[in-house]
């Protein structure tokens, strides 16, 4: 099987890691206060905050925001704020409340990725992609000279052989600092090209899918969509090696003790709470705690599918807005509003993950989250994706 991985030349800031790294743009989508605090903490310092469009602001002057992001990226390149490393992977050690999560920052070949239902591929999406969420992401990538990823992909290594092997190597420390807003601690170690090649060979197993998107499904889908758009304008020789064909991600072992699946809960806003609760409880046995429902449904795909079908049917007839919430505490706080109803869902079992994806299967959109909101990947490493 052709390798899914490419060894990149990674970009890192020359200084100021603490303000440089910010959490994934699809977190805290109902919490403007979070992003306002990040803005204050960053201030005028160089930061990946200037390269992203937090989803809490989607629909608010997107075109101008994206144009400003592109300008900021070019400025970062032109003013020497970024250092390009010698070709190699980065080994990350992320300490959170769930433990120490280790990963490999590498580039994947988007030609080996598919999100299409029923289509087997070495790299698979894990959740259904919502088409309406792609245009802004594709537009952002279309004019971007560099990328800073938050996508995490799973590989399978039940005995954690790879990380045990790398623990015996003496590696150069690239960064070592505390992340803002309760994100824990992160350390990055450089893997030289020869060692990176060994890692790539170890990870590129024949079982399909070889890798599956754990977090950032829409970001990977948008990168693929942009690549397909661009590929049609390129001569074949250039298409084989163009940097936009690849995407920087973090590869994490599904069976790491620090990998904890959390459900993504549902909330309906701007609705008649009592009417919605009555409707939902007529179809599913639930425990009610205020405006929070805890349905007696199985974990994983089946429970999510049933919940979404009911909520979408109700909202379609009666109005309201469905949102997806990471964290039980956050859900309960939002559901305390009188015109909101929250639905608390169960976590996915790890052994069910890759089985669901065989033969081109997917989970329903927003089935699971890799940790709580603050545990998600922070933007940190970058990579050039154009020849400008």
Blueprint (SSEs and pairs):
Blueprint: E1 5-6, E2 11-13, H1 17-20, E3 22-23, H2 32-42, H3 62-78, E4 82-84, E5 88-96, E6 99-109, E7 113-114, E8 123-124, H4 135-142, E9 146-147, E10 152-155, H5 161-166, E11 172-178, E12 185-192, H6 193-203, E13 211-215, H7 217-231, H8 236-241, E14 246-253, E15 261-269, H9 273-283, E16 286-289, E17 292-295, H10 301-318, E18 321-326, H11 328-335, E19 341-343, H12 353-357, E20 368-370, E21 378-379, E22 383-384
Parallel strand pairs: 7-8, 8-13, 10-14, 17-19
Antiparallel strand pairs: 1-6, 2-4, 3-21, 5-6, 5-12, 6-14, 9-22, 10-13, 11-12, 15-18, 15-19, 15-20, 16-17
Helix pairs in contact: 4-7
Short description:
The chain has helices spanning 17-20, 32-42, 62-78, 135-142, 161-166, 193-203, 217-231, 236-241, 273-283, 301-318, 328-335, 353-357, and strands at 5-6, 11-13, 22-23, 82-84, 88-96, 99-109, 113-114, 123-124, 146-147, 152-155, 172-178, 185-192, 211-215, 246-253, 261-269, 286-289, 292-295, 321-326, 341-343, 368-370, 378-379, 383-384.
Helix content: 25-40%
Strand content: 25-35%
Q: How is the main sheet built?
A: 10 strands, mixed
The rounded Rg comes to 21 Å
Q: What's the structural domain tally?
A: 2
Please name the defining characteristics of this protein.
12 helices; 2 domains; 388 residues; 31% helix; 22 strands; 10-stranded mixed sheet; alpha+beta; single chain; globular; 6-stranded mixed sheet
Description:
The protein is 31% helix and 26% strand. Strand 11 (172-178) and strand 12 form a beta hairpin. The relative contact order is 0.20. The protein folds into two domains: 5-259 and 372-384, no CATH class; 261-346, no CATH class. It contains twelve helices and 22 strands. The strands form five sheets. Strands 1, 5, 6, 7, 8, 10, 11, 12, 13 and 14 form a ten-stranded mixed β-sheet that branches. The protein has helices at residues 17-20, 32-42, 62-78, 135-142, 161-166, 193-203, 217-231, 236-241, 273-283, 301-318, 328-335, 353-357, and strands at residues 5-6, 11-13, 22-23, 82-84, 88-96, 99-109, 113-114, 123-124, 146-147, 152-155, 172-178, 185-192, 211-215, 246-253, 261-269, 286-289, 292-295, 321-326, 341-343, 368-370, 378-379, 383-384.
